[in-house]
Design brief:
There is one protein chain. It is built from seven helices and eleven strands. Strand 2 and strand 3 (56-58) form a beta hairpin. The protein has helices at residues 3-26, 65-78, 103-109, 146-156, 164-174, 219-233, 248-256, and strands at residues 36-40, 43-47, 56-58, 82-86, 113-123, 136-141, 179-186, 189-199, 202-210, 238-244, 259-269. The longest helix has 24 residues, at 3-26. It has two domains: 3-119 and 265-269, no CATH class; 136-236, Aminopeptidase. Helix 4 packs across helix 5 and helix 6 crosses helix 7. Strands 1-2-3-4-11-5-10-9-8-7-6 form an eleven-stranded mixed beta sheet, with helices on both faces. It is an alpha+beta fold.
Length: 274
Amino acid sequence: MHNREMVVKLQNAHANHIENIYRQMMRLPGNPDGIEILKIGDTKVFLSNRSRLENRAIFTGNETLAELREVTACFDRKGVTGFFEINPANFFRSNPFSWQSEMVPALLALGYQPELLRCVWYLDEYREPHEDEASIQIKQFTYKDADELVAAKLLVEPVEPDKIEHERKTIKHLFTKPWTYFIGYEGDRPVSISKLFIQDQIGYLAWGYTVEEFRRMGHHRKHVLARVHQAFETGCEIVFTVTDFNVPSSLSLQKVGFKLAYNYLLMEKPAATQ
């Protein structure tokens, strides 16, 4: 696959995962998070009233200055920080193609700031692992197992007693077919959790978490393998995920066979001061 095609495909797949989350949140009674999904030209915009990394605009690189201003105004209106991916496919204008790097200077002039360098990793062929962390057992949960999942998740990530019922209702409402949860156990104790999102034969390894005392014991790798296996078993052609630059999880991914698809610059538009 040509590099630009790869970048566009994976950026859009990541946008699909955000859209799925926000459309489910939008259906919560009263839309408590103030979710908005907009289209400005060819740019998808995802907004909520709360601080979230998913508050994003998915830039194509072909935005006009007027469209960039309109996108910026959406986040200022909401009073939330926006996050934006600048990658090899949208760094230059592609329609028509130009070698002039217009996007980043325009964003800087509008008050955007460089935040992080991030890495997108992909795997397009599944191979059974030769080694295994025998003490770690991974259990898979589909949307049909929501009640059991909630009980296990609250043991991995406890919440305040007065928030338990809200957590239960939210998970059961948002847990839909494109998603699969995975819980890792040490003996009978659930100690790690991760998620897999599948759409259009692309698997996205979403967020994961391990209780601190059980980190560096193989849970991350075991969750990666479980999700990759499930993705390819259900017909995915490619699996991808995102990490920060030069972190332990990126080394773990490479050991499993993941390759670097591309790096991107995460830019931030700070919330407008009142």
